[in-house]
Amino acid sequence: MIVTEVFKLSVNTIKSNKLRAILTLAGIVIGVFSIIAIMTLLNALQAGIESGLSQLGSNTFQIQKFPAMNFGDPKMRAKFRNRPDITYEQGLRLIEKATLYKYISLEDYQSSKTFKYGKETTNPSYMIVGANLDFPGCNDYTIKDGRYFTENDISSSTDNTVIGTDVVEKLFARENPVGKKIILDKNEFTIIGVFESKGESFGQSRDNFAAIPITKMQEIYGKTNRSINIAVQAPSKTLYDETQENIISAMRIVRKLQPGEDNDFEIYSNESLIGEVNKFTQYFKYGAGFISFIALLAAGIGIMNIMLVSVTERTKEIGIRKAIGAKNVNILSQFLTEAIILSEIGGIIGIILGVLTGNLVGLYLNTKVVIPYDWVIIGLVVCSVVGIVFGVYPAYKAAKLNPIDALRYE
Questions:
Q1: CA–CA separation, 350 vs 352, rounded Å?
Q2: How far apart are the first and last CA of the chain?
Q3: Which of 268, 287, 308 is where one domain is finished?
Q4: What is the pTM assigned to this prediction?
Q5: Are residues 263 and 279 in the same domain?
């Protein structure tokens, strides 16, 4: 019997028992759906997080008091809190002592602030960034209109600001903001420039902020009980590791750490953060894989049960086919094909529903649409394996039926 005939016969048999086929498919669909939906969502979230982390410029790493991601025990969190703050003065000394870098950006942040211009007011979700001259270079920002700070703006703590495009759209929809006065958290500043838009990442805008000289930032909000961030860009990719080693050595001197003492500051980059995110999401993938394995195992047992029932119901049909010349391999291939087709149909339905559901949830969280091609292939392969493993015994049992006994069966 040629392959096409076996396939057509198997499909017709499945069509003639629609309810039984649907019930059998349900288990496969649920198993595949669960893993594909979770993997699609995790991949979408992961892509969004990686895009957000990529806001640092190329060959750039950061220094800060706390780890960028900390899922440790409370004792570790207490240890990080007890570290000395990284001060602006320490940042200046780092710039003096480091010998290998392209940019060093000293950054001080205040979040959840309100901006005002005339009668227009933003919601309290905007950010003020205290920055030095190297902020645009380290963070991959460019100026769209006006200018950025000069050395005089930093040294003289001028009341100048450079704003993001979200601020322009909210407060200056009908006029050029450069040269206008704006209230940033109850303090008046003159707008001297506008940054190019960087869009959204993981549902968060990168344009809803205003930069002011870091010296002015510390005049307004003080220097105590606050720690600044330091971003460093290496001269090139080949000098990245050497730059990081040079900065760590200089930072240890600035922080007065003795030989053998652990660093009391954290170094992280886009790559290290992405690695941490991947490590964190890996546990969810393991959990989803285990749950889906249980579901597919139960579905496989259901397929075996249905196929055994089918063999019993079609005993006389098998006897007739054998009597007119069908060989054991023909019977075996037919029942095995039916099991595989059932598994693959369930797998395809589960994959489609899983990808749609995962991306719908991802879109709700403002992540990009993704298709986990690797898991789609894995899902189809697993469905084939389930069909083969759990269809072999019923198919073998059907193939071994004695044609005389089968013809007598009622």
A1: 6
A2: 27
A3: 268
A4: 0.63
A5: no
HEC string of 306-355 equals: HHHHHHHHCHHHHHHHHHCCCCHHHHHHHHHHHHHHHHHHHHHHHHHHHH
Do 218 and 168 fall within a single domain? yes
What's the CA gap between 78 and 329, in Å, rounded?
Answer: 69
**CA 101 to CA 232: how far, in whole Å?**
7
Rounded to whole angstroms, how far apart are CA atoms 28 and 38?
Answer: 16
Say if residue 130 is in the same domain as residue 184: yes
User: pLDDT-based confidence at 139, cuts 50/70/90?
Assistant: confident
- 109 and 234 part of one domain: yes
> How far, in Å, CA of 410 to CA of 407, rounded?
8
CA pair distance 154, 359, nearest whole angstrom? 46
pLDDT tops 60 at residue 2: no
Q: How far is residue 6's CA from residue 401's CA, in Å, rounded to a whole number?
A: 19
Together in a domain, 19 and 85: no
* 149 and 248 housed in the same domain: yes
Check whether residue 233 and residue 333 sit in a common domain. Answer: no
Helix, strand and coil in the chain, % to nearest 5:
55, 15, 30
Angle, helices 240-254 vs 88-97, to 10°: value is 130
pLDDT tens by residue, 398-410: 767 666 655 555 5
**Domain end position, chosen among 217, 251, 268:** 268
| pLDDT tens digits for range 327-342 | 777 777 777 777 788 7
Structural domains of the chain, count: 2
Please state, in angstroms and rounded to a whole number, the distance separating the CA atoms of residues 253 and 97.
9
Looking at residue 409, its amino acid is Y
Residues 164 and 47 in one domain: no
